[in-house]
Q: What sequence folds into this?
């Protein structure tokens, strides 16, 4: 349900409850200007007020801390905006698509193989909505290899980060049995990003230039560099990164919840026009996971299915930065 923003004398005001642990999908990360620290709030429990004049919205949680995918208890949060080569420090308005770079070059990143989907197709499908209606009756009456939009077994084949209860972490998502280097086992977006930015040799002053060159050739890694440069108020350069495919896959089964939080923020502060919702269809989100010298992994939103796919490194697509929250 949409929450109505409250207006106070000093402008727009969020409502919610501060969380100190157990960060969940849809929680919002704020920067407290007075205390100079990040906090996380649950906007579904509107017990306190958080005026925008003091609290700057930074990110939305997409990987719950309870899943402990990093082994540190941290949650994974996504930027509120797309990255932009023209304004790398702030992100951009609309679709400022960026390419992976290093086309036709096999970097020192591990090449994660394609995840084989049903009927031997080279893709992987997630549950596309938040409606995780999975029970014994379903599994007994449906072929889990069927290729229907909402008929996917998340427990047997690991097509969702969530187990059949819709809450617990799915072990199959992290350690697929078919491939040891399955793309969805890559949660090391920070290390991937560090490797990629060190390969950006053709624009030596990219860390201080007004813009980053969106070039796909050898010596260019614009997507990773834009994420590294991203530094909205309350964060610093190098804190954000281009997520691995396993991290990015979390946005799909909880897209409705994530978009609800983004829409809440967008409605709250009408002047903050660059906050961008995740697309319902026809959008690819680029990951830092490499498949080969010519392909990188993406999460794809389409009309019939949402899946992990591969895309040529020279093509520009949407990029969202991630940040880890303790």
A:
């Amino acid at each position: 349900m949409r929450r109505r923003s409250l207006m106070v004398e000093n402008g727009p005001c969020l409502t919610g409850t501060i969380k100190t642990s157990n960060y969940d999908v849809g929680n919002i990360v704020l920067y407290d200007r007075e205390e100079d620290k990040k906090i996380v709030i649950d906007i579904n429990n509107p017990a306190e007020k958080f005026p925008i004049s003091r609290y700057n919205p930074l990110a939305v949680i997409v990987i719950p801390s309870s899943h402990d995918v990093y082994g540190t208890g941290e949650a994974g949060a996504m930027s509120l905006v797309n990255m932009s080569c023209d304004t790398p420090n702030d992100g951009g308005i609309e679709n400022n698509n960026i390419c992976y770079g290093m086309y036709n070059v096999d970097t020192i990143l591990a090449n994660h193989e394609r995840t084989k989907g049903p009927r031997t197709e080279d893709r992987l499908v997630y549950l596309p909505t938040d409606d995780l209606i999975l029970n014994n009756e379903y599994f007994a009456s449906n072929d889990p290899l069927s290729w229907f939009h909402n008929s996917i077994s998340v427990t047997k084949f690991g097509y969702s980060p969530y187990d059949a209860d819709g809450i617990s972490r799915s072990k199959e998502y992290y350690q697929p049995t078919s491939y040891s280097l399955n793309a969805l086992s890559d949660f090391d977006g920070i290390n991937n990003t560090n490797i990629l930015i060190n390969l950006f040799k053709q624009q030596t002053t990219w860390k201080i230039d007004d813009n980053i060159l969106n070039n796909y050739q050898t010596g260019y890694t614009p997507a990773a560099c834009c994420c590294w440069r991203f530094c909205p108020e309350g964060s610093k350069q190098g804190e954000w990164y281009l997520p691995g495919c396993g991290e990015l896959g979390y946005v799909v089964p909880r897209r409705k919840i994530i978009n609800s939080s983004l829409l809440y923020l967008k409605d709250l502060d009408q002047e903050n026009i660059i906050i961008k919702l995740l697309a319902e269809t026809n959008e690819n989100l680029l990951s830092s996971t490499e498949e080969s010298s010519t392909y990188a992994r993406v999460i794809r939103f389409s009309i019939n299915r949402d899946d992990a796919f591969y895309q040529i490194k020279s093509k520009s697509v949407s990029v969202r930065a991630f940040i880890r929250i303790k």
The longest strand covers residues 11-19. Residues 1-9, 116-158 have pLDDT under 50 and may be disordered.
